[in-house]
Amino acid sequence: MKFFDNLPAMDLMRSEKMTFVQLIIPVESAQRAVSYLGELGLLQFRDLNADKSPFQRTFVNQVKRCGEMSRKLRFIKDQFSKAGQVISVRPSLQPDIELEELEIQLAEHENELIEMNSNSEKLRQTYNELLEFKMVLRKAGGFLVSAQSHAVVEERELDEHIYLNDDYVERASLLEQEMQPGPSNQAGLRFISGIICKSKALRFERMLFRATRGNMFFNQATAEEHILDPVSTEMVEKTVFVVFFSGEQAKTKILKICEAFGANCYSVPEDITKQRQITREVLSRLSELEATLDAGIRHRNKALTSIGLHLKKWIIMVRKEKAVYDTLNMLNFDVTKKCLVGEGWCPIFAKPQIQEALHRATFDSNSQVGIIFHVMDAVESPPTYFRTNRFTNAFQEIVDAYGVARYQEANPAVYTVITFPFLFAVMFGDWGHGICLLVGALILIARESKLGSQKLGSFMEMLFGGRYVLLLMSLFSIYCGLIYNEFFSVPYHIFGGSAYKCRDTTCSDSHTTGLVKYHDPYPFGVDPSWRGSRSELPFLNSLKMKMSILLGVTQMNLGIILSYFNARFFGSSLDIRYQFVPQIIFLNSLFGYLALLIVIKWCTGSKADLYHVMIYMFLSPTDDLGENQLFWGQGPLQILLLLSAIIAVPWMLFPKPFIQRKLHSERFQGRTYGILGTSEIDLDVESDSAWQHHEEFNFSEVFVHQMIHSIEFVLGAVSNTASYLRLWALSLAHSELSTVFYEKVLLLAWGFDNIIIRLVGLAVFAFATAFILLMMESLSAFLHALRLHWVEFQSKFYHGDGYKFNPFSFASLVNEED
């Protein structure tokens, strides 16, 4: 065991050693000290004011100020998006400014932009009204001219035929009297003209008809130009209308309906000369307003451009300041000593860097009193922190998605870096498909710096984050594809000729009979001659099924061995003797023995039935194996292994809970006190906690937990081994699906002597390969590999009940969205 102790520490195998520290910071250097710690990003503060609301904390006013500045910055950012401008990403040449000066500048910029927006909205509203008035003058003027000409013709007819008769007044109807020229014109037809959204025109007309009981004439025409809606900022199609009516009451109703439908009414004179004069005035004012609006937009864009040079810097500055004050609110404020007291976790390797940053903060703030930084003991478990890089980060995220490692327990990510892409490749083995994945991974890695600075969609962001996982998956897929000898399901003689040939010339085209082995086996991978033979499927089934069991037993043994190193690291001899030893015996007595039989059968070429051997090992362990015997002494060995497996179950179940109870009773027997503290208060706390711990020990609960754990392992050993057969199933499915697309699509289309059919077949084959085999099948293999790691592998040793080290860091604020 000294050999293992002398080995150098493996990177990522254990989380970084953490220490609990306390800081006593004078008020005058507190803001600068926390800011420097944020730049360093290696200290996780603990909230000492968790019982206080945000409004009861010390620096609530500063947080409110930063929040108000953030609101102003968001407002300015919205103005950029509305104006269609892009915020400059070039570094600002402006010297650093104080927060108070920035606050004044932001208030000035906000007021200036609000005033410009207000003026622009008023001008735009006036412009829209004049534009609508212009269209109403054109369309309504046309309606009135046509109505007047029609009235003149009718008046002549009446003069000639009716008005010349003496008894006309007696016989004339009321309508005809109203149409008669003279004083009756005052109570004649009137009109209201205006403009309304085209989508509302039909409902508007119906409402007018019902309100006036049909005593109106409605004329409409589509406006020539679309008008900008100030609310939705979209171009809206509108309709010009003229309503002819009679009576004051009808006028009141029509005006109310116009107001309800949002129709704008404009007064159009009946005199054509006046119409032309007003039209000229409207056109003149429109041209003036256009020039004014353009000048306002140019002025606004110029102001935004000058702001845009510094906006990114200001946003980051305000975020940092707000984060600093939020962190300061987590510290205790000692009024008498005028200092802030903070507590938190930091890695041991970071202590010199933190101390150097605190000394620098004291010097820069001209404080007469230094910052006190000292290590404390903590009751709670430290956070888990792994130093990862671009390559290992994605694998660590895969593990953390299951659960964050307990402090300093063995990290599965160390082995996941290799085992995860390899198990994926076992299911996805095809070196043609692997090359496609490799090209995609290399493109992502080559454009790493460019893509890393862009905002990507959810799918692309996930793909970019796992670019190195994809790289290893593609490389292992090429390797496994070479072993399976499959290139888009087609075998190639890459490593020499086949070990089989025809017995005579009559079987030169045969793939099912007449083949004999004539030299050494194919040097690497599956012999190409198996493709198309009658025994291809049974051979590949047997190969992949046995290989899956070997891989599964190996990985589960690795998991149990890691549980030994966990127990050894934490000094738990109980876990080694009564958990690791019986588990390793039970698993290898059954499935380790099966893996040994597979290897012996492959090496010796025996025809023994392993199903029969394993079944009758339980049913009739003393029976003669006959032709199924693979080596001398196999029968007694099977009995020994079976007895070992049976003994291992109570070994796992009973000793550990009873020994724990004995140790606990010896430790706390006759004692209700704890470790001597630094004060009487500490002594009381420790003695109370010791008594509580003694009271909390529940043997039945511990025994039930151990029983569940033992049963879960015994049943899991069987189910987990069977679960690894998914490697065989998915590998076979991928191979057969690839073969179907190749033979039934590509080769079938190539059999026609028609270029169009061939191109269609090639397109269908490419589509099926890209979307079904490369996307769906790779996703399926990824998820199954994920399950094998989370359930079958990590359940053997990994608790995953820790919590991540979350330091106060400005680096996480740079790319954070509002």
UniProtKB/TrEMBL annotation:
<feature type="transmembrane region" description="Helical">
    <location>
        <begin position="579"/>
        <end position="600"/>
    </location>
</feature>
<dbReference type="InterPro" id="IPR002490">
    <property type="entry name" value="V-ATPase_116kDa_su"/>
</dbReference>
<feature type="transmembrane region" description="Helical">
    <location>
        <begin position="547"/>
        <end position="567"/>
    </location>
</feature>
<comment type="similarity">
    <text>Belongs to the V-ATPase 116 kDa subunit family.</text>
</comment>
<keyword id="KW-0406">Ion transport</keyword>
<feature type="transmembrane region" description="Helical">
    <location>
        <begin position="466"/>
        <end position="484"/>
    </location>
</feature>
<feature type="coiled-coil region">
    <location>
        <begin position="97"/>
        <end position="126"/>
    </location>
</feature>
<feature type="transmembrane region" description="Helical">
    <location>
        <begin position="755"/>
        <end position="776"/>
    </location>
</feature>
<keyword id="KW-0175">Coiled coil</keyword>
<keyword id="KW-0813">Transport</keyword>
<keyword id="KW-0472">Membrane</keyword>
<dbReference type="GO" id="GO:0007035">
    <property type="term" value="P:vacuolar acidification"/>
</dbReference>
<feature type="transmembrane region" description="Helical">
    <location>
        <begin position="635"/>
        <end position="654"/>
    </location>
</feature>
<keyword id="KW-0375">Hydrogen ion transport</keyword>
<keyword id="KW-0812">Transmembrane</keyword>
<protein>
    <recommendedName>
        <fullName>V-type proton ATPase subunit a</fullName>
    </recommendedName>
</protein>
<comment type="function">
    <text>Essential component of the vacuolar proton pump (V-ATPase), a multimeric enzyme that catalyzes the translocation of protons across the membranes. Required for assembly and activity of the V-ATPase.</text>
</comment>
<dbReference type="InterPro" id="IPR026028">
    <property type="entry name" value="V-type_ATPase_116kDa_su_euka"/>
</dbReference>
<dbReference type="GO" id="GO:0000220">
    <property type="term" value="C:vacuolar proton-transporting V-type ATPase, V0 domain"/>
</dbReference>
<dbReference type="Pfam" id="PF01496">
    <property type="entry name" value="V_ATPase_I"/>
</dbReference>
<dbReference type="GO" id="GO:0051117">
    <property type="term" value="F:ATPase binding"/>
</dbReference>
<keyword id="KW-1133">Transmembrane helix</keyword>
<dbReference type="GO" id="GO:0046961">
    <property type="term" value="F:proton-transporting ATPase activity, rotational mechanism"/>
</dbReference>
<feature type="transmembrane region" description="Helical">
    <location>
        <begin position="422"/>
        <end position="445"/>
    </location>
</feature>
